[in-house]
Write a structure and sequence with these properties.
The structure is a single chain. With about 325 residues, the chain is an alpha+beta fold. The protein has two domains: about 210 residues, no CATH class; about 80 residues, Alpha-Beta Plaits (2-Layer Sandwich), CATH 3.30.70. The chain contains twelve helices and four strands, in the order H-H-H-H-H-H-H-H-H-H-E-H-E-E-H-E. A four-stranded antiparallel beta sheet has the order 2-3-1-4, with helices on one face. Helix 4 packs antiparallel against helix 5 and helix 8 runs antiparallel to helix 10. It is elongated and about 80 Å long. It starts with 12 loop residues before the first helix and ends in a 13-residue tail after the last strand.
Length: about 325
Amino acid sequence: MDQDNRSNAEKTPEENKAAEFRLPPKKTRAKEGILPAGSPRVKVFYFIKTFLFLAASSFLVAFSSYCLIAPNNFATGGVTGIAIIVEKATHGKVPQSVSIFCINAPLLILSFFCVKKKFAILSMLNVVMQTVWLTVMEHLNMPQLIFEEKIFAALAGGIGIGAAIAFAFKLGGSTGGMDIVAVMVQKKFPAPSIAWMIFILNCIVIATSFFVYKVDGDVTASVLPLIMAACEQYVESKVNDAITNGFHSAIEFRVITDKPEEMALTIISKLGRGVTSIPATGMYTRETHSMLVCVINRRQIATFRKILKDVDPDSFAVMSGVSQVLGLGFFSGED
């Protein structure tokens, strides 16, 4: 590229203004493997973070199923729900830990060939830790929480498992079972939300629980477990979506201004965010303006508002929430 050797006097005001603000260099992203690139300290931090998220995720699944859902006589969805149904049908002869491990094993093996190895490995570790947690709880006869109002068990169980799934997805893995199936299906047939796909798959499992929990001659008692399971699944999917999207949510600003160059350069300089300019015409005044579109983090809102006030107090701005942002400077979509 030819260098611009002109003096400042020979340049336009816009060019001089642009020279004051240097665009931050684009960050190149190395191809990711199982471990992050970087110093040993970075890798140690990654291991600690991964272990804590895995421990929390697997414990929440085990605790929610063993202490909240199963003792209140209804089943959740997925492999955990199947394990609860099997335990109920066999009168406890086949514990949840055995069913969860046996059902997940072929799914985990399949995931190594259908999805990324990182996803498969993290999912496998999560399932193993779930099995360990459940085995410990079963052998220690950990107290189970039986609620008079079953809805509380459904709410608590949904929050616990929903958070567990979100933590697992945050790492780039899953809690096993239907999560693996949903990811493999979405890879083949993209869907708006993995959480809602899991919800649909889990409803199929819940429907089969009717034959285990039904009470002859009592329609209400037979249907109640299905209602509680549906409530648990709804809460689970909403919590999962809220936590997963919450990690990557942002704010979009659309600014109508007569000072687009100065406004854009100030945003780039002070916030390090890209700006897109779109021609806009006021249909009432028939005047032509520029509309700047910019996506920022929530913590940058105050600074952005100050920029609007300082650069162009007469600008018109619209702020809206964005559930998820993919791209440079935000979530890569591959984590």
